[in-house]
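Memo to structure team: turn this sequence into structure tokens by end of day. - J.P.
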Amino acid sequence: MRTIGFRSNILFAIAAAFGVVASLGRPWYGPSNPATDAQMEDLFGGIGRSMTEPGGTDGWTALATADQLLTGLAVATVVLLVLTLVPALQRHMQPLARWCALATLGVVLVKLVDGPDTAAMSEPRNGIFLALAASLVLVASTWTVAAAPSRKRVPPKSYTPPPAPVYDNDASYGPPQF
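Reply from structure team:
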């Protein structure tokens, strides 16, 4: 079974970072319905609305300054991953890219758990879940790129055959003959 290669993971990370930034245009939070006596129906109704409700406040509006932080971390991760293609910089850029991807995931998780406290933005919507999925792909791809061995360009070694054995003409070789 083959794994995804070094450069392919960089392409996946670029697509995931684009997905994180694009998810900010989707609704991240929306209003909840009034509570009823059926608590389980309210719970499942909220889960259904979070995935299917098209209305709500988009990420650019809902996140005060975290939207810029999220975009900056996603772009910084991509830049650091592209710099890992340079063999001289690879060893230094790999851990930085890993930390930027983890910080991107951390910001999305914080905004998922600690959302705005207004009534108009009390339930999560599909944009935050898209950002969560894209940031998980970003972390997975970046982690694979960061774990790759250093690619040093070493010239191939030339083959030098071993010297031929020296035989003694007076000695006998092989098993004894009876």
